[in-house]
Amino acid sequence: MGLTHQSCGSGVNREIFQRGMVPGAAYVIALAGNPNTGKSTLFNALTGLNQHTGNWPGKTVLRAEGKFIFQGRVYNLIDLPGTYSLLAHSAEEQVARDYLCFGKPDATIVVVDATCLERNLNLVLQVLEITAKVVVCVNLMDEAKRKNIEINIESLSAELGVPVVAATAREGAGLAALQQAVAGIADGTVKTSPYIVKYDEAIEHCIRKLEPKLKELVGEQFNSRWLALRLLDGDETVIRSLKKWLAEGTRVRAAAGGEILA
Ligand SMILES: Nc1nc2c(ncn2[C@@H]2O[C@H](COP(=O)(O)OP(=O)(O)O)[C@@H](O)[C@H]2O)c(=O)[nH]1
Ligand SMILES: [Mg+2]
């Protein structure tokens, strides 16, 4: 799997759908979470000095990228902007959301604050609507302990349908278990069955009508249920990104002398 600029296409495609820039990386892993959940602390603990920062193309939003090696494989870690949701109300939310959908990371770590789990789970459910390849990292476990908050990691994992790992990033606790869980998701040996939010029947009815048409357009590339929801939302930013992706695909196929889709 190539992870260089070249292999990710060019022009518009490279701008918004760039997966990662670490040469020779086996997998690309996204790091998502609410602000102040210890995302950067975790990113630093995992990548050490193997990182560099820049801006997301076309945005004044910081892009931090780095690598770690686990069991002989190189993992390219992308620190997404901290967000409370993925509704694209801000540049940060749009960057995080476009990356999760169009960047197609091999796994996504969602870092949550153990001391205010409920608020943080909102983002977890939104990420699970986009991708099933998720590991939830319940961070700040030391703070939770101090506040006598107990978290049943196993039952949380059973409810969410994805691996959940407890961590205290500041002390480096839980990192090995997190890496192990990420490896399982990235290489496909661990399958998930994510909790999916069900909407009112009227909305579900529209999704059922839209989803097959979207599948015709994008195949299995993207989560067509999520795209259908965004179209029902009238979400212009997703529609624009999707158009760019479709246009770029047509351009690349044309350049390769392949079949051009109408
Ligand atoms: N007690 C405790 N503090 C942490 C932990 N992880 C991060 N922090 C602290 O939480 C604050 C926010 O961390 P940061 O990594 O900047 O969060 P981000 O906004 O999600 O990137 C900083 O003061 C960190 O030192 C942890 O596991 N335990
Ligand atoms: Mg940060």
Automatic annotation (TrEMBL):
Domain of life: Bacteria
Record-annotated membrane-spanning stretches: none
Cited InterPro entries: FeoB_Cyto, FeoB_GTPase, G_FEOB_dom, P-loop_NTPase
GO molecular function: ferrous iron transmembrane transporter activity; GTP binding
Entry-linked SUPFAM superfamilies: P-loop containing nucleoside triphosphate hydrolases (SSF52540)
Domain FeoB-type G: 26-188
Entry protein name: Ferrous iron transport protein B
Species name: Desulforamulus putei DSM 12395
